[in-house]
């Protein structure tokens, strides 16, 4: 649990990796959170193969490594720097793949778009508007 009493992000990722196939019809709290999250990126609600694999690795590999890194930092272990480097490079690699696959799909899964909203103001201003 996070400091506000809400489940932390790592727990949510573990939930997604275990229940991605039932989330669209499930009414449990964490499934509802993932449905909200998927409003920004529909790959989560359609159980896109890459997204499921990426979230599974994040939850079950980088999550425990992160706890190990916290222990190593607090205990002043000499290998703490190597752990931090491994975790950081793994997260960077995952982020690059995450955004690059969406770019290759021509941003077909995005939940928002930039549109010319000059009808109200008469100016040529671009605004962020949620897709219907």
List the helices and strands and how they pair.
Elements: H1 9-19, H2 29-37, H3 49-74, H4 80-104, E1 112-116, H5 118-121, E2 126-130
Antiparallel strand pairs: 1-2
Brief digest:
The chain has a two-stranded antiparallel sheet. Helix content is 57%, strand content 8%.
Notable characteristics:
cholestenol delta-isomerase activity, steroid metabolism, disordered C terminus, two-stranded antiparallel sheet, 132 residues, mainly alpha
Spans where pLDDT lies below 50 across 5 or more residues: 1-10, 113-132
Radius of gyration, in angstroms, nearest whole number: 19 Å
Strand order of the largest sheet: 1-2
Beta strands, count: 2
**Main sheet overview:** 2 strands, antiparallel
End-to-end C-alpha gap: 33 Å
| Percent of residues in beta strands | 5-15%
Q: What is the global morphology?
A: flat
Average per-residue pLDDT, rounded, comes to: 78
Q: Strand pairing plus helix content: what structural class?
A: mainly alpha
Total helical elements: 5
Total tally of structural domains: 1
Question: Order of helices and strands, N to C?
Answer: HHHHEHE
Helix content: 55-70%
GO molecular function: C-8 sterol isomerase activity; cholestenol delta-isomerase activity; steroid Delta-isomerase activity
Family: Belongs to the EBP family.
GO biological process, one term: cholesterol biosynthetic process
InterPro entries: EBP, EXPERA
Q: Could you characterize the architecture of this molecule?
A:
The chain has 132 residues and is mostly helical. The protein has one domain (9-130). Helices cover 57% and strands 8% of the residues. The chain has five helices and two strands, in the order ααααβαβ. It has helices spanning 9-19, 29-37, 49-74, 80-104, 118-121, and strands at 112-116, 126-130. A two-stranded antiparallel sheet has the order 1-2. The chain is flat, with a radius of gyration of 19 Å. The two termini are 33 Å apart. Mean pLDDT is 78; it is low at 1-10 and 113-132.
